Amino acid sequence: MKRSITITLLLLLVSAANAQIKGKVTDENGLPLSSVSVYFENSFTGTTTNDNGAYSLALKKTGRYVVFFQILGFTTLKKEVNITSFPFELDAVLREENVQLKEIIISTKDNPANRIIRNVIANKEKNTDKYAKYTAKFYSRGLYKIKDAPKSFLGQNLGDFGGSLDSTRSGIVYLSETISEINFQKNPKKFKEKIIASKVSGRDNGISFNRAEDASIDFYENEVMLGNDLISPIATSAFSHYKFKLEGSFYDTNGRLINKIKLIPKRANDRVFSGAIYIVEDDWALYGTDVSVTGAQISTPVVDVLHLKQNYNYSSENDAWVLISQSIDFKLDAFGFKLDGRFSAAYSAYNFSSKFSENTFSNEVLSFEKNATKKDTVFWNKLRPVPLTKEEVKDYVVKDSIKIVRKSKNYLDSINKSQNKLKLLSPITGYTYRNSFEKWSLSFYGLLGNTGFNTVQGLNASLGFNYSKRLNDLGKRWNVGVKSNYSFSEKVLRPTFFFTKKWNNMSRPQIGVSGGVTTAQFNGREPISALENTIRSLYLRNNYFKIYEKGFVKITYSEEIKNGIFFSTSLEYANRNPLFNTSNYSFAKQSKNAPYASNNPVDQTDFENAPFTAHKIATLNIGTTFIFNQKYLSYPDRKFNMGNEKAPSLAVNYRKNFGASNAALNSDLFTANIRQEISAGNYGNFSYNLRGGFFLRKKEIAFMDNLQANGNQLTFVLGNQLDSFGLLDYYKFYTNDKYAEAHIEHNFKGAFLSKIPLINKLNLHLVAGAKTLFMADNKPYSEYAIGLDNIGFGKWRFLRVDYVNSNYAGIKNNGFLFRLSLF
Fold it and tell me: Which of 47, 337, 389, 475 could form a disulfide with 385 if both were Cys (CB 3.0 to 4.6 A apart)?
């Protein structure tokens, strides 16, 4: 009872506080209209209505004002009011827009919509130059609602989502708001945002991830960034992807003719929009957008449909039409979860005469004002441009009260008591004991994911424990753990331990100490996973996994020493010993298959000799990665690096092997790696990866210390295609001298296949690539591939198929590769 009274009082306070002009906007049937832009004449002082059609508009003084109510599909309403006292009630009823198609337009020989779109395309630069520089205020709100949420997922109890769910397991699961200041420059394109206030329902830190740059959906660009590079209906190539139809025209309150253009995709599966855009006659500028795309089109299959609306307002200051409000609605239905989401945004206080200095923009594109996440209710009620709905107010109140309770020791202990119960399958799936109040956990590694098979160890399984302690909310924590692997065929136990400590989430300094006895692949780049090898061995009797034993102790350190410069180093002392096959077991019948190959990667028919002699050696690695001109986001508790697609990343490393029991095994190696992914707009993405290295002296070193290429002998591949070769045997090429490899690939998305009748209905992506390898004392090796990506059914498209042709010393080979692109 007390809670309901408190919520009622807060609802009244929130609705009344600072609402100088307030009211409700409905249609002629009395139904509330959301996302209606409400603003004063000749200004960008305004707001938008919430889901209930309510709005509040702050004023500093009384007087005569002209207020506009604008939303696509309805006639803009202009109201003149004389405000003598506050609060001032001003409701509005909007009539549906009477969009008419004039007879004179129908008789035009050329499609009138095509003429309009051509004029818009021709005037894009002119229109966007009018607001090439500006500052503005930005407000955003994110809202997720769930319906009939499952009680568990993958065997894990989902609880009540932090108090979000009612008795039907429905409710708001995420509610956040941000108020920020943004700076924008068109040429060269630069963006900067400073969040003044951030709020997340039910959370102390209040860090919202609603960014203004993410919300910047610009149809004047050829590609619209919305989860995927979608083709704008006013792109220079628009007529290759859309048909246009003039549905009609109407006049706005200032007498400007507005044309409604229907978008008709030429191919349903293209990266295009459906719906309509509104164009201002003569200005040839956007007046509004009302479009939708499917989840498959934005490369987010779990989304059914995404609906986008934008409203533009005329600025007499610079004779430009600028964005004032935007809403994105989507529905998600996957794995038993049914979510409705909305991200709404409002722009105000535009200043087009801003003068930027050299220090205005930097690689830091987002920052938070001090205490931005700690603003109180009074602050929000004063500055929030879009009023909360009753449901949203209730969500804040309830979750804030629950939050206090759920931070208490009694509550956390009760939750842990339920979570910490041992289950029948815990020895297989793993088990974690948590103490949430003290911020530590103890985990047991289950057999699932820690059991495998190879010809050296036979069936082998690992068991172990990990203790983790969180010291603060800024990323300071440490972990310690032990694990033991037992080989049933060898009858050997190999224990290992580790300790890591991280100090913060900004530069992420981390130190680690580890040691014990383990097995390692001869190729340190690990071209085949233990799981892949287990499957191939047991079912096909193919043991591509080649390993040796290593008793070691190792210390590592890593940190981002400056923005875009990452430093890492490690020092290891190891005792390396060769291993031999001890198991010949397989599900495959030996009479139908050749016996297993040996564990010698140099000669897989040699079962007696190892590729190296046992030795002890120390290894020092010093590496630096440069991500040039790296953009980043500064949150109160972390730094998030964004990279920069216009510049490559470069990694260089020096490895020194020293102190070997046989001095001839000591060596010095330099390697470098440069990679980049470049957007080609409507023509997809181009990627490349170049890697090379050399030894200071050519010596007969241990086999595992040679430079090696990543090969592949699998038909179904899980690895990264830009790090490995498709048809190259795993250990065919290695060198103690010089080495270089190059991988390039272009994914054309739907640039070509979407234009072929019938084929375009499959929504396939054409992919082409080439790879080459140069190694001292060997002839070059090359591969060329062409493939199809985005293969699947409906919106679930995770498969890729490549046809690969290789050439080495005049010997050609070919084959098909299948890849999963689930992640």
Answer: 47
- Matching residue, tokens 């827009």: 97
pLDDT per position as a tens digit, 190-207: 999 999 999 998 887 777
State the Rg of the chain over Cα. 31
Which residue carries 């004779």 as its tokens?
A: 319
Token code pair at residue 615: 């030795």
Yes or no: say if 253 and 76 are a contact pair by the CB < 8 Å rule: yes
Give dist(CA 748, CA 127) in Å, integer.
30
What does the block give as tokens for 397? 């109140």
d(CA 762, CA 664): 59
At what angle are helices 2-16 and 390-406 packed, to 10 degrees?
130
Whole-structure pTM value:
0.86
CA dihedral sign of residues 654, 659, 662, 663:
positive
Q: Cis (ω within 30 of 0) for the bond into 188?
A: yes
The C-alpha atoms of residue 51 and residue 55 are separated, in whole angstroms, by 10
d(CA 238, CA 220): 11
CA 391 distance to own-chain centroid: 30
Report the candidate in 118, 69, 123, 96 with the shortest Cα–Cα distance to residue 246.
118
CB-CB neighbours of 821 under 10 Å: 14
Which residues share a beta bridge with 222?
Answer: none
The gap between the terminal CA atoms of the chain, to the nearest Å, is: 48
Please give the angle made by the CA atoms of 436, 442 and 443, to the nearest 5 degrees: 120
Pairing mode, strands 257-265 and 242-251: antiparallel
- Per-residue model confidence as pLDDT tens digits over 14-50: 444 444 788 999 999 999 998 898 888 877 778 889 9
Whether 554 contacts 570, CB under 8 Å: yes
| Distance of alpha carbon 715 from alpha carbon 122, whole angstroms | 50
Which residues make Cβ contacts (< 8 Å) with residue 701, sequence separation at least 6? 657, 664, 665, 667, 736
